[in-house]
Amino acid sequence: MKLDVVQDAKDHTFTIAVKLDQFKTLRDYEIIHNLINALSLEFDLDPEISVEDLKNIVHEAKNEESTEITCEIGPDGIDVEFE
What we know:
The protein is α+β, with helices and mostly antiparallel strands.
């Protein structure tokens, strides 16, 4: 699975970007889920995003003809967007 993880030292945020075609197996969803959880701990956040939530997000993004999802994690919380 290919993904981009960027840390913005100025804003102290992390951004995870994943192309939708990278989600092929349950393991792919679990990897992203674990990464979101790990980075959320940096900010003492409870991510409240499950593997099922990720499946739904990817499904919705595909329905909107997006090619990528991005997840920004920072002191203000977690924000998921489609691109």
